[in-house]
Amino acid sequence: MSQHREPVTAIGAPAAIGPYSHAVRAAGLLFCSGQIPLDPDSGELVGATAAEQADQCLRNLQAVCAAAGATLADAVRMTVYLTDMGAFAAVNEVYGALFEADPPARVAIGVASLPKGALVEIDAIVALPAG
Hints:
Layout: E1 6-8, E2 23-26, E3 29-35, H1 50-67, E4 75-82, H2 88-98, E5 105-110, E6 120-127
């Protein structure tokens, strides 16, 4: 392992479904891998709608942040991947409820498909608290 980067494994997040870490801590930042709406216990997809799935994605990201001593309130940039941009407004409602004040920078991208048939995937870059 490199001394300038440290992989983070989050017990409360779904197990990685490929050769990647939940996140990597480097230079005071936490680079979180994209989270799809998997139930952390069963590993099964959760939610029938993009909004329901976005909620689970954010819960999974919150668990990843917690494992590194941060929260999603510390996020500086997030990316939302949607298989249907028509669901953008519904996903925005869920996202906006979490970030009522001072939301992070964000990108939303329409994609052809996501792992396991998910409708939404979200990743984050988080500023780690000093300590």
